[in-house]
Amino acid sequence: MHSMNRRDMLLLLAGTAALPDSLLAMGRTVHQRVRAGTLRTFDAHQNETVATIAELIIPKTDTPGARDAGVPAFIDVMLADWGDDDQRKMFTGGLTNIDERSRGAYGKEFIGCTPDQQAEILQDLDYELARLRDAKADTSGNFFGAMKWLTLTGYYTSEVGATSELHYRVVPGRFEPCYTLEQ
């Protein structure tokens, strides 16, 4: 995947999503709804696949990665509360497809592959997504496009992502989601 720093990704995200304030509000609400250890959309294998992909998109460096920011649970709740059946099917179908690609290329499921093998599979998905965009095709049903968007949204609306990346300071010094959203 071509390298893009997190600030660039945030700007890209802000430009392609709903109004950043409404997106931030929604993201915080989703993070609030997460119940530790409770999966609502994914089974354990799917959840670990999501976590592995998210961590490859936003790895832990000197700042926390996607796992530390609670991105997998965020995606699970987003699909449960805001996704419809078609979106959930598209997403879980994409996870199945990733395992099929992994077995075809390396003889094992995605989470059993080495980080280099995993990166290779994601590069292929990213390339396919870029080709769709170049062709001005509809990418709304593209799993990897949705995965990237949800990962970035989940990261930058998390307490960890907001405080470590954006130097976002909340008064009185703790994470206080300030919006309620109707489902």
How would you characterize this protein structure?
Helices cover 62% and strands 0% of the residues. Mean pLDDT is 80; it is low at 1-19 and 167-183. It is mainly alpha-helical and 183 residues long. It is globular and about 40 Å long. The relative contact order is 0.18.
- Assembly state: single chain
Q: What is the strand content?
A: under 5%
> How many strands, what sense, and barrel or not for the largest sheet?
none
Which structural class do you get from the secondary structure elements? mainly alpha
Could you give the order of the helices and strands?
A: HHHHHHHH
Taken from the alpha-carbon principal axes, the silhouette is: globular
- Specify the number of helices: 8
Q: Which consecutive residue ranges, at least 5 long each, have pLDDT under 50?
A: 1-19, 167-183
Mean pLDDT score, rounded?
A: 80
Helix fraction, binned, reads 55-70%
Overall number of strands = 0
List its salient traits.
183 residues; mainly alpha
